[in-house]
Design brief:
The chain has 11 helices and 12 strands. With 338 residues, the chain is of the alpha/beta class. The chain folds into 2 domains: 162 residues, Rossmann fold; 138 residues, 3-Layer(aba) Sandwich (Rossmann fold). It has a 6-stranded parallel sheet with strand order 2-1-3-4-5-6. It has a 6-stranded parallel sheet with strand order 9-8-7-10-11-12, with helices on both faces. Helix 1 packs across helix 11 and helix 5 runs parallel beside helix 6. 35% of the residues are buried.
């Protein structure tokens, strides 16, 4: 008798492919291993689901609109409650410890008190990330949750050699948001005007006032370019390939820009955090250069002057989606709902 395939309902699974291919790459690999992966919708609550796998749930309570946040949070909690009653395994990949911008404190309190007590397993991208999570006061009540390490995999890119040129490019890639402190970065950049470097900030920004302020600062600089629009996959790949160095400007829990840069075989300049230190040791010497956050004019100049003109001789060592999917599958198979 053929074993019944497990149904994994993921929020999100594939619908965020254009925003972040992480989920799509993971779940396509899990499908190849025999799992039936479905995108979460309200109708999935009426059907069988063996696993409910959640990503970035902290954002559901932090949309710009309070009503929209409340509605989405209600759906999230209902899905978890229904899943718990049915014996569904509820798994959370903790990409972040908290939302980038905390907009609705009351909703966030409900999220922490209710949602966090319905999860049975938490997956972390790094061991240091797990330790940061366990040390965070927001999660003091999560004593019965099982914790796992499921690393981030590579994005699909064709590595290209570094261009030989007199002016190298420093790239900041991703959404243009205030928490990244990009205006402060450009002010320091204009103050120091690093010789032999050009700054490129590329991505879409939803806060018009912030983007306008950033544009004015970059226009005043003679060595900085702002690309403010939604970028296609090919544009992202071309920007990464055209860069000599990718900068992570904020010390977040995990940064997709690091994995994107490594997938394009480009060095990364990142804040000196436990997670980034762990990654730098994992991928091999020379690929991730750490700096003391926040930047100062002196530290920026020193960091850029120390960047070699050639890549390390060995490619970065990044976990494969095959091995990552195996680690996730072990959670699905071994964990039990609380």
């Amino acid at each position: 008798m053929t074993a019944q395939k497990k149904i994994v309902v993921a929020w999100p699974a594939f619908k965020n492919r254009d925003k972040n291919p992480y989920n799509s790459l993971l779940y396509r690999t899990l499908e190849q291993k025999g799992y039936l992966v479905r995108e979460f919708t309200l109708s999935t609550l009426l059907k069988r689901m063996d696993v409910l796998h959640l990503h970035w749930p902290e954002d559901y309570a932090n949309k710009k609109s309070f009503l929209s946040s409340a509605a989405t949070l209600t759906v999230l909690l209902a899905a978890c409650l229904i899943g718990k009653i049915r014996g569904t395994k509820i798994v959370w990949t903790a990409h972040n410890i908290s939302a980038h911008e905390g907009l609705h404190r009351n909703l966030d309190w409900i999220y922490r008190k209710v949602y966090l007590n319905l999860v049975s397993d938490v997956a972390h991208l790094t061991k240091a990330g797990r330790n940061d999570f366990l040390a965070c006061q927001r999660f003091e009540g999560l004593t019965k949750v099982r914790h796992h390490i499921t690393p981030h995999g590579p994005y699909v890119m064709t590595p290209r050699p570094l261009a030989v040129r007199s002016v190298r490019k420093l790239l900041v890639l991703g959404q243009i948001r205030p928490y990244k402190r990009l205006t402060e970065l450009v002010e320091i950049w204009s103050e120091t005007e690093p010789q032999g470097w050009h700054l490129v900030i590329a991505g879409s920004g939803g806060n018009a006032n912030y983007v306008n302020e950033l544009q004015a600062l970059m226009t005043a600089s003679g060595s900085a370019t702002l690309i403010n629009r939604w970028l296609t996959d090919s544009e992202v790949e071309n920007l990464a390939a055209d860069a000599d160095l990718v900068l992570v400007s904020a010390p977040r829990h995990n940064s997709g820009a690091i994995y994107l840069a490594l997938s394009a075989t480009r060095r990364v300049l990142a804040p000196d955090t436990p997670s980034n230190l762990e990654l730098s040791q994992r991928v091999g010497p020379g690929w991730i250069i750490l700096y003391d956050y926040p930047f100062s004019a002196e530290s920026l100049a020193q960091s850029l002057s120390a960047i070699p003109e050639k890549n390390p001789s060995q490619d970065p060592e990044v976990d494969t989606w095959e091995s990552i999917a195996d680690a996730v599958a072990q959670i699905y198979e071994r964990s039990e709902s609380r």
